[in-house]
Amino acid sequence: MPALGSGRPRRCVLLGGAHGRASGVPGRDRRGAVRAGAFGQRVRIGAARRLLETTDQPLSRVAATVGLGSPDTLYRIFHRHLGIPPGEYRARFAHN
Question: What are the tens digits of pLDDT across the range 6-18?
Fold first, then answer.
């Protein structure tokens, strides 16, 4: 096999996987399986949604609790995946 360099591209080729978004579908590999990073992000979003719906914790605590680190990251991910910021999500769906 020709030398492909080191790191992820080589591992992906050796293991029969794709490097990057070969499938053209964000969060999925070329076989259609959900990539680990996308799965982890979905789990974090789900946990953040539950906290926003059921608690009055500040966004900084919600972000830290679910492993997103900062309110800015929480905002970006919510806006990208749900189309609304976390504060608006809480206002619409809180069960308090």
Answer: 555 544 444 444 4
